[in-house]
Fold this sequence. Notes:
The structure holds 2 protein chains of 2 kinds. Chain A is 9% helix and 48% strand. By secondary structure, chain A is mainly beta. Chain A has a 15-stranded antiparallel β-sheet that branches. In chain A, strands 1, 2, 5 and 9 form a 4-stranded mixed β-sheet that branches. In chain A, a hairpin with a 5-residue loop joins strand 3 and strand 4. The chains are: A mainly beta, B mainly beta. Chains A and B meet through helix 1, strand 1, strand 20 and strand 21 of A and helix 1, strand 2, strand 6, strand 11 and helix 2 of B.
Amino acid sequence: MGPLEKENAVRNALALSLLSALTGVILSVAPSPSASATSARQMQVPIHLRSIPGSGYVVVYLEISEDFNKLGVPQKLEDVPLTTIPVSRAGMLQIKLPVTEEVLENTSSGLADYTFIAWFGNHLASSEASVPVAPEPGNDAAAMRGSIPTIMFSPFERATSQGVPAPKPPPCFYNAHGKSVEKTNLIGQMQDSAARGSKVEWEYSSEADSTFGVGVSNNPTKHFNESGSFTITNSISGSGGFTAGAGFNRFVYGHFYRQRYVGTAPQPFCSYHYKVKFVKSVGDSFSASASAKHPPVDQYGQCSHDPNGVATMNPHTGHWDRDRGKATTYSSAATIFNLTVSGSTGYTNDININYTNNTNHLEYVCGNAQLPDSPILWSNDSQGN
Amino acid sequence: MIAAVSLAALVSACSSKISGLVGNIGAGSSAGSSITPGRPEDYTGFLANHTGQVVILKSAVLLPAEGFRAPRLVHEAIEMGRVFATSDRDWPPTEPRLPLRNFAGYRIEPGREVKILYSVVGQKLGEYADAGLRVTVVVNGSRGTVDVISYAGTCVVSVIVHDCPESFYNRVQRAADRNT
């Protein structure tokens, strides 16, 4: 084993310990209503239940994707109940997710897809989230940087049943409804100095993960609400990148397949009848047109004023290829019929922004958070150009 | 938490690494530039101290990048302030002039992160690369090492304005990606 392989082995073990420490994983044999869900450990995650009086329950399911078509889009979803957690109120709470063998057997890049239904009397709300349960590099990055998102529930709506059955509800099944639709989603932004001779390159290589909001509704095309998020874990062998020159400042987009699913009736203990999510990346990336809306410029005016640190590139051939260990989250990254959903791309360090300085003077790179791990990067010369 | 502590202890027991020292902050990224033979080229690695103890830096050796000829490590220092060099030339660097502190004996307080500037040379024309530094430290009286990952491609050319082909920097970046 070479020094770097050894380092990787150590880092993976360390990542597991850090992941455990940061996410509150504890060793326990938690009782679970599901016989198949013998819990080896639990993972604490934040949830947000919208306003509703009283107390209730949160049912936690593992979502298993099945029957993939030739595009790699799952045609069936099975939500297997794992546990039912009593909650004393709505609002911001912490719950413990069971991380069972079944969960670990159904991960992609170490991420497990959980779905949730909150029951408060005869009202329900839903959510879902792709949670890093195994110490893959991207999960390491996400967990270590405190990036496990709060699981946001849809608004509460009146249910057809009178609440969750004890001790556990039945599984929920969904089938693909209609064909996959290719959509253009926002995945990032890139900016370069105005100095002639500077160059910037967007490198979108394999296995860049993208997380987009999930839409739920009881109507196939209307009245969608955002219900948590789903992370697409790519395994694309190619890469989609492009190069730009001085003065470039544009948003970057990629293509994704959106799929609508419909619940198999009757499912009185399941949530909304339709759910729509982005389930597959095409794997390309491209910049917005010159006439499209541009990203905001450096909020500090120029890099020399940026309190988060300043990276320098020497004149004549200085290169800096910086990964985006922490992704930028955009509130309007994609649309699901009438619904605009949030999105972020790049937790797995596979989107790089590569700056090259072929000018005859020093160039700076800075960002909106502490360098080198800043989600957004800006570049300018010593004059702020 | 018990699992975390025992795993961290296991990591320490299985290697000479110090648990809580994080040297992979720059992992996945790479830097590079062209330089003339024998002239120093400077890069930056990042090291965070989460040991809960003061960490004292002792020495450093270059981490080779697999598949590349290694340059020779000639200097190390701590960069103070907000500015750091992704790539710089000469020693000490002249553009920009960076406030530096001695590397050997530098004390990293608990919870702090430092920027380590290191300088390499290549004596012959051609392509060189490294993966950063293996740093020897003393923590609470015990000696150990931490790998500060910082992939850098140094292109030794006859005239500075001649750069190496893009493919060289891409190969360095791919090596950095593989070891993320």
